[in-house]
């Protein structure tokens, strides 16, 4: 995958907790950044087939490496083309160390 393959835009959300005036915990998501992404749907393996039977769609989300993308953790989520994915692992660099890849499920 090259930078030219990053043809979609993804919005990355970080979980946020706060308390309201009554002391109740409020959980919400804060938009941290939007950047070009590439989404590759996983095919084949036994784990992928099991995920599909459970109505989950495993994908690899690829972004350019920058400080914001390095801050992403497995607690975040990303919205791409109206589909929401939960990030399942922290970003890892590709072989050229120019892009970051992360496993996500939709």
Provide a descriptive summary of the structure in words.
By secondary structure, the chain is mainly beta. 11% of the residues lie in helices and 51% in strands. It is built from two helices and seven strands. A six-stranded antiparallel β-barrel has the order 1-2-3-7-5-4.
Share in helix: 10-25%
**Please, what is the average pLDDT?**
88
Count the helices. How many?
A: 2
* Strand adjacency order, main sheet: 1-2-3-7-5-4
The H-and-E topology, N to C, reads as EEHEHEEEE
DSSP strand count: 7
Share of residues in strands:
over 45%
Largest sheet: 6 strands, antiparallel, barrel
Task: Calculate the terminal CA-CA distance, rounded to whole Å.
Answer: 21 Å
Q: Give the overall shape, derived from the CA principal axes.
A: globular
**Which secondary-structure class do the elements indicate?**
mainly beta
Radius of gyration: 15 Å
Low-confidence stretches: none
Task: Throw out a few tags for this protein.
mainly beta; globular; 11% helix; 106 residues; 2 helices; 7 strands; 51% strand
Topology of this protein?
Blueprint: E1 8-19, E2 25-41, H1 46-53, E3 58-64, H2 67-70, E4 77-80, E5 83-87, E6 92-93, E7 99-105
Antiparallel strand pairs: 1-2, 1-4, 2-3, 3-7, 4-5, 5-7, 6-7
Question: Nutshell version of this structure?
Answer:
With 106 residues, the protein is mainly beta. The chain is 11% helix and 51% strand. The protein has a 6-stranded antiparallel barrel with strand order 1-2-3-7-5-4.
